[in-house]
Design a protein that fits this description.
Layout lengths: L6 E5 L13 H11 L3 E4 L14 H8 L6 E3 L16 H9 L5 E4 L8 H13 L3 E4 L12 H9 L5 E4 L1 H5 L23 H8 L3 E4 L2 H9 L2 H10 L4 E2 L13 H7 L4 H16 L2
Parallel strand pairs: 1-2, 2-3, 4-5, 5-6, 6-7, 7-8
Helix pairs in contact: 3-4
């Protein structure tokens, strides 16, 4: 049995895909109860590249208002609003934080990850003391193989807490990434030299979000590597599901339990790291 409490760093509400039914706050809570999850971050969707529909920050704040003991709102601002040279996201994010948002995300803009418009957001969240959760693949927060642009952002924005997620990020757990891997879930044993572990170990301001098929695949493709990876990076990894609809199959907790990790490793990944970042 996994230790409690469990905090999910990555969930969604509303109807964001045509193929899946709308998920209400009560539906999410039912799903969390069925999985044994105590608290969850609810991410806002305000970038057009990822989903069929939006679920903006105002909707997140409204939907979670009655359940703030369990549902933690994150905010979002599309960096392409307004004039590209003068738009300042800080006042908008500042207001969202004052209303209860404890982080920024899910950041899904179809820009290079080092675009100046995104850097304004990196600077704003650093000033406000909240983390940013961003999805990296070939279309969103774009980077080259080896994540050189993202590493530069991590290095240059030392006060910004980055929580990384998505196919490109998790493909880089292995040292043999090919350009086509940034949009898929690579299979086979993890090879030495993966950029994910390098970044987690070298930089104190970057964390990994284990949610979704991309996070689970990074572990399942090589269970022997997964156990050591989780143990070595126990203070830099966050449990997540990426719940989108109530009947969605979620296998991450089941997989983690099978690894039979030390209880303190589980506690760090399932709750303590998120507790620290979200200042709970």
């Amino acid at each position: 049995m996994l230790p409690k409490p469990i905090l999910d760093i990555h969930t969604h509400l509303g109807k964001i895909f045509r193929a899946h039914p709308r998920l209400s706050a009560r539906g999410l809570l039912r799903k969390m109860d069925s999985l044994g999850i105590d608290m969850a971050v609810v991410l806002a969707i305000e970038n057009p590249e990822e989903t069929d529909y939006y679920f903006p920050t105002e909707s997140v704040l409204r939907a979670t208002r009655k359940y703030r003991d369990r549902l933690i709102p994150f905010c979002n601002v599309d960096p392409r609003r307004g004039h590209p040279k003068t738009f300042d996201p800080y006042p908008i994010i500042e207001r969202y934080v004052a209303r209860g948002c404890r982080g920024f995300g899910e950041e899904l803009a179809g820009l290079f990850v080092d675009d100046e418009r995104l850097q304004r957001i990196y600077r704003a969240v650093a000033e406000l003391g909240i983390p940013i959760l961003l999805h990296l693949d070939g279309y969103r927060n774009i980077d080259d193989v080896g994540l050189p642009r993202f590493e530069r952002m991590i290095r240059e924005h030392k006060r910004t807490i980055f929580i990384a997620h998505g196919p490109h990020w998790w493909a880089e757990i292995s040292g043999d990434v090919k350009p086509e891997d940034v949009n898929r879930y690579p299979k086979g044993p993890v090879k030495p030299g993966g950029k994910v572990e390098y970044l987690l170990q070298k930089y104190p301001n970057v964390y990994g979000d284990l949610s979704a098929g991309s996070g689970l695949n990074a572990l399942q493709r090589d269970p022997e590597h997964a156990k050591g990876f989780l143990e070595r990076n126990r203070r830099k990894l966050l449990f997540g599901t990426d719940i989108i609809w109530e009947t969605q199959e979620i296998k991450t907790l089941e997989f983690l339990e099978k690894l039979e990790l030390d209880e303190n490793v589980y506690r760090d990944i399932l709750y303590r790291n998120a507790e620290k970042l979200l200042k709970l």
